Amino acid sequence: MVKKHKFSVLSVILFFSFGMASAQLSLLKDFENSNLIAKNVSIREQQILVDSLIAAEAEFEEFDEEEYPAGYLYTEWDNSTLNPYQVKIAALPDSFVINCSDFFPPVENAVTSEYGFRWGRFHAGTDFRVKVGDSIRSAFDGKVRITKMGKGKKGYGYFIVVRHDNGLETLYAHLSKILVKPDQIVKSGEIIGLGGNTGRSTGPHLHFEMRFLGNAFNPRKMVDFECFSVYNDTYTIKKKGTFSEMTDYLNNPARYYTVKSGDTLGKIARNHRTTIAKIQQLNKMGKSTTIRAGKKLRIS
């Protein structure tokens, strides 16, 4: 679904070719018996010329900015794949300024789980307490790229991805109902879905992600979720700062332990030469959090 500009390289070439037609007529008369005439050019040579023109045109394919938000930044528009870009953090621009002046909170409820490592895996978003049926709103102006209804108790359940004019993409997961369609234009604050408990979820909540070229980062770096407003009208994404949690996670091998019946944090800490406080910190556990058999804990 790549939209080309109205004037392609091929059309420009043809335009100038026809513009020069009158001047060429007289030259053709002088050369009509010459081997330079097109009729003497082989079919194979003509095909090579056409192929080269098409290849040149393809290099200039771009998104129409009015139809595809941030088309200058993204390489494609895909309605089914969460991250079709596959751009590694190391390959991101060193910095990129995001206009976040039109931010609207998806919900204004308490945060129940933060971005970062937890319970043996990396949690790439921020969770908010919601009731089934609560309104979920678009964080910025943009266009819906994906609406998907997951099956069973796996993954995001019912979720939405919106590509925004400012270059970000946001994801809203575990919904009970989706109220928008792919390729639909949405405004900041517009209701796009209803809160739910679908997919891999232990209770009704909204899982909210901010992504840049497919890479999720901590929304708290841009948004104060106590006041539900952005810190500034612009946010500069920096490769070495914005993605620090994810980079640390990828660069530092972690060790895990699966909790067994009868285990306590003290026993696990002693057996693995660490401390209860360290285990709680690594797994973002409160002091009163209980552990259950079968859970994976990060221990280093």
Question: Which terms would index this structure?
Answer:
alpha+beta; Glucose Permease (Domain IIA); Membrane-bound Lytic Murein Transglycosylase D, Chain A; 3 domains; 8-stranded antiparallel sheet; 6 helices; globular; disordered N terminus
Topology:
Blueprint: H1 9-19, H2 21-30, H3 43-58, E1 95-99, E2 111-113, E3 116-118, E4 121-123, E5 126-129, E6 135-137, E7 142-149, E8 158-164, E9 169-175, E10 177-178, E11 185-186, E12 191-194, E13 205-212, E14 215-217, E15 223-224, E16 229-230, E17 234-238, H4 244-251, E18 256-258, H5 265-271, H6 276-282, E19 296-298
Antiparallel strand pairs: 1-17, 2-5, 3-4, 5-13, 6-12, 7-8, 7-11, 8-9, 9-13, 10-12, 13-14, 15-16, 18-19
Give an overview in words.
By secondary structure, this protein is an alpha+beta fold. The chain has 3 domains: 9-58, no CATH class; 96-251, Glucose Permease (Domain IIA); 256-298, Membrane-bound Lytic Murein Transglycosylase D, Chain A (Roll), CATH 3.10.350.10. It has helices at residues 9-19, 21-30, 43-58, 244-251, 265-271, 276-282, and strands at 95-99, 111-113, 116-118, 121-123, 126-129, 135-137, 142-149, 158-164, 169-175, 177-178, 185-186, 191-194, 205-212, 215-217, 223-224, 229-230, 234-238, 256-258, 296-298. Strands 2, 5, 7, 8, 9, 11, 13 and 14 form an 8-stranded antiparallel β-sheet that branches. Strands 6-12-10 form a 3-stranded antiparallel β-sheet, with no helix packed on it. It has a two-stranded antiparallel ribbon with strand order 1-17. It is globular, with a radius of gyration of 27 Å.
